[in-house]
Amino acid sequence: MIPEIEPSDRLQLELPTIEEARARDAAQARRPEPIESAAKVDAEAVAGAIAAAESARLRTANAEQLAAARRQLDRIATDKRAERDRLARYREAEAAHAATMADYNAQVEAARVARQRWERDVAACAAGNRNRCGPAFTPD
What are 80-97's pLDDT values in tens digits? Predict the structure, then answer.
């Protein structure tokens, strides 16, 4: 069962009119907030705050510079390793080339000596030394 509200118990709101509300809002907007004068502020506190801010910015800048320097040193070390690897591969290729050229030159020299011996044998055979003549050609 809901009790009934007697007219004397009713809530009454006293609201301002729209003009009164607008006037109050305008008056509050025009009132400046009280500002402490610069003379009241402690100069040491300001200097300390500035020094702390500068110190923090300096630490941040130093940390960034240190990180950049480390990245650069890592990049340089990587480049040096890559250069050493390229140089080692080049030297290996150069040594392989030198060995191949030495083998080739040895084969050329052996062929030259064999040709000279053959030419001497042909000349001796033509001069009448049959011991130095090659086997006779027999067609099949």
Answer: 999 999 999 999 999 999
